[in-house]
Write a structure and sequence with these properties.
The structure holds 2 protein chains of 2 kinds. Chain A is of the alpha/beta class. Chain A is built from 14 helices and 18 strands. The termini of chain A are far apart. The chains are: A alpha/beta, B mainly alpha.
């Protein structure tokens, strides 16, 4: 009897505290993510970012008075499965919106399905320029820029933070043969990006950031996308060319760990090292002191004082860090922060448009300007006609004394750390 | 010349690690005709056991190796009893084991992901990223130790198979299961123990892998094809063949990586698999199947 009474009271108290949702039923949102397979590390973190955001929105009363129901499917890092799952979301599950998947390799084919169905396609990852040059007007990228333009931040660091007389003169560039990494490579090397379907020119990136810096490329090599194990051999090839700058364009943080350890073993001594991945805590754990001085670009940093909106209320970057740690017991990294920002963007689009109609949501997102932007924990977003963010630089970070410090651009926020240079040994 | 010697050293060093990774797979196929696609996922399980022992209690991976082997061997016994024993007399046993082990691999991956998350891990004892330099040539100590331990384990296994009574029973079962049974060999026990040894070798390999490569639950898919190519080239069921194939292919891949390009080094394994199936399907040391 006492138990029943307690349960009854508890349910009354719980119902008083819980937000009252509309009777229209939940807003279903689908996300196909690589929870297993080669992208599973990032995929699982994306799931955490989406789930945390949806939970916080629901705690604050949902969207347009309706509870949000997130449907996540594991696409096993397989493009065909990702396509099938988004089609299922639309045709079977009856979702009213979708969140994007992880990686350019999966986002590229998914973009066509979502465009054909008139769905707003908010991408957390999918930096390859080709995705945005297909003429789709429903795409909105939630990272600072396309992969091909990542090199601008590295060029800025060399130009602005390194004294001219000490600047690197030679460079070795090695890369995964991966959609994203190839994009970064094209920008650095100044290649012409073509559409694989018809060979037409997408963008001419010449002369490239490395040429603009006057760097001589002394070694360049790609490794296969999957199954590569010969890291020491590759690192040794790089070491023998004695480059001042080593650029490692990895497809995952796991590859960045392998590369860093290999350079440590072969005792490479470059002045500067830049990797396209490696902001995660696991990178530091796997590399230890070897990470010292390694530069990595990122879309998010916990110190960036971004003020965003969540369910109509102010929500700071620090609020996100606190909520994430409370939910998952560890600090977040960009692989969870970026999908969180996507979720914020979709929520603001629904609220701004006053409907879950994707055409109206797309129009609302299209109409954003730098002054009246979508406000996320990654900062403010407005987009050009291609769906790429306007005037939004990547953040350049550097591992120093076991801490990932934000070093560039120097005029964006207060509290920017000084870059350590030269790196020397690993 | 320096470059050639260095490339040879790096190829041999990697070959030592792959030799142990492939040996358990070869043993299990030789005795039971199980094409164990779950073998790499069990190597990952051994790597996780080693990683956490190092992380929580500072136990060196080489010290943890026998423990990981025993833990995985016990899992092997359980796995055999639960999954394979009842199908052992099926006419389509080998074909069925492909499906069963594929499913097992997915279950192991899921279980590891559930227990340890999909975060990548790597064990970092001091020797893992160290190297012995002789002039400009270096020998990576992590892979050197892994290779030496790997060869010691394989040698011990070879001696056990050749000189022990139970080893003879295993070899007899490998050569002719029915004849061994007629001669009084307890084939079921041999299968259980062989499977346990094979999976135990996966555990031991996992300890070495834990500081040579970084790993995460889904990493095993990258190794399935590579390990299969080693076992097929060596001759399905021939441990000596697997060891020789490991050194051969890793050395060739290292030279391809150094002189042709890293893009093509992984291709070496698959090209070898293709060619060996075309030219000598029984592999280097395998027996030619008798035509009925």
């Amino acid at each position: 009897m006492k138990t029943n009474l307690a349960l009854g009271l508890a349910s009354i108290v719980a119902s008083l505290g819980a937000p009252a949702f509309s009777q229209d039923g939940p807003i279903k949102i689908g996300a196909s993510l690589p929870l297993t397979g080669s992208f599973s590390i990032a995929g699982q973190k994306h799931q955490q970012g989406y789930e945390l955001c949806v939970d916080l929105i629901n705690e604050r009363g949902g969207i347009l008075g309706r509870e949000v129901e997130l449907i996540v499917s594991d696409n096993r890092s397989d493009p065909a499965t990702a396509i099938n799952q988004y089609e299922r979301f639309l045709n079977v599950d009856g979702v009213e919106a979708v969140y994007g998947t992880f990686s350019s390799r999966l986002s590229f084919p998914v973009a066509n399905i979502l465009a054909r169905n008139g769905m707003v396609h908010a991408l957390p990852a999918g930096g390859a320029l080709r995705i945005y040059e297909q003429g789709h007007d429903n795409i909105f990228y939630f990272q600072p820029n396309a992969a091909e333009y990542v090199g601008a931040s590295l060029a800025g660091v060399v130009r602005d933070l390194v004294p001219a007389e000490e600047a690197p003169k030679t460079v070795a560039i090695i890369s995964a043969d991966d959609f994203f990494a190839n994009g970064v490579w094209s920008g650095l090397m100044g290649e012409i990006v073509t559409d694989p379907a018809d060979g037409s020119e997408v963008a001419d990136l010449s002369p490239g950031y490395l040429a603009e810096l006057g760097l001589e490329v002394v070694y360049s090599e790609r490794w296969p996308e999957e199954g590569f194990n010969d890291w020491l051999n590759l690192a040794n090839q790089v070491r023998q060319t004695e480059p001042d700058l080593i650029i490692g364009l990895t497809a995952s943080a796991e590859e960045a760990v392998q590369l860093t350890r290999a350079f440590d073993t072969v005792r490479a001594t470059p002045q500067m090292v830049y990797f396209s991945q490696g902001t995660q805590a696991e990178y530091l754990e796997g590399t230890g002191d070897s990470a010292q001085g390694v530069l990595v670009h990122t879309s998010w940093h916990s110190d960036a004082p971004f003020q965003s909106l969540l369910a109509g209320s102010e929500f700071s970057n620090q609020d996100f860090v606190g909520a994430y740690e409370a939910a998952y017991g560890s600090p977040p990294d960009e692989d969870s922060a970026i999908p969180f920002a996507v979720c914020q963007g979709i929520e603001q689009a629904m609220v701004g448009a006053g409907t879950t109609d994707n055409a109206a949501m797309g129009d609302w997102l299209d109409a954003r300007t730098k002054e009246d932007a979508v406000r996320t924990i990654l900062g403010r977003f407005s987009w050009d006609d291609r769906g790429l963010p306007v005037e939004k630089p990547f953040l350049m970070t550097q591992w120093n004394d076991g801490e990932l410090q934000f070093i560039y651009p120097t005029d964006e926020f207060e509290g920017v750390s000084a870059m350590s240079y030269p790196k020397g040994s690993f | 010349m320096e470059q050639i010697i260095q490339t040879l050293i790096l190829g041999l060093a990697l070959g030592g690690v792959f030799a142990l990774m492939g040996s358990g797979l070869s043993l299990v196929f030789g005795v039971m005709r199980i094409v164990n696609l779950a073998h790499p996922s069990l190597i990952i399980a051994g790597a996780y056991a080693t990683y956490w022992a190092f992380k929580l209690w500072g136990i060196d991976p080489l010290v943890m190796l026998p423990v990981a082997a025993i833990i995985l061997a016990a899992i092997g016994v359980l796995l055999y009893k639960l999954v394979f024993e009842r199908e052992a007399r099926s006419a389509k046993y080998s074909e069925m084991t492909v499906l069963l082990t594929f499913a097992t691999a997915m279950i192991v991956e899921g279980a590891l992901g559930g227990m340890f998350t999909n975060t990548q891990r790597v064990t970092s004892p001091s020797y893992a990223t160290d190297a012995i330099f002789i002039g400009n040539i270096f020998i990576p100590t992590g892979q050197l130790y892994a290779g030496i331990v790997s060869l010691l384990i394989i040698s011990a296994l070879a001696l056990f198979l050749k000189y022990s009574r139970f080893g003879n029973a295993i070899r007899a079962t490998t050569q002719n299961r029915e004849a061994a049974e007629l001669l009084g060999v307890n084939v079921n026990l041999v299968c259980i123990m062989s499977f346990a040894i094979g999976i135990g070798l996966a555990g031991a390999a996992g300890s070495l892998v834990s500081f040579v490569f970084s790993f995460f639950p889904a990493k095993h898919w990258e190794w399935v094809a590579v390990l299969m190519s080693l076992v097929v080239l060596g001759g399905m069921g021939s441990i000596l063949g697997t060891v020789i194939a490991s050194f051969m292919l890793c050395v060739v891949a290292a030279f391809v990586g150094a002189y042709v390009g890293a893009t093509w080094s992984t291709m070496t394994f698959f090209l070898a698999l293709f060619l060996i199936l075309l030219i000598r399907p029984q592999g280097l040391f395998g027996e030619k199947p008798e035509l009925a």
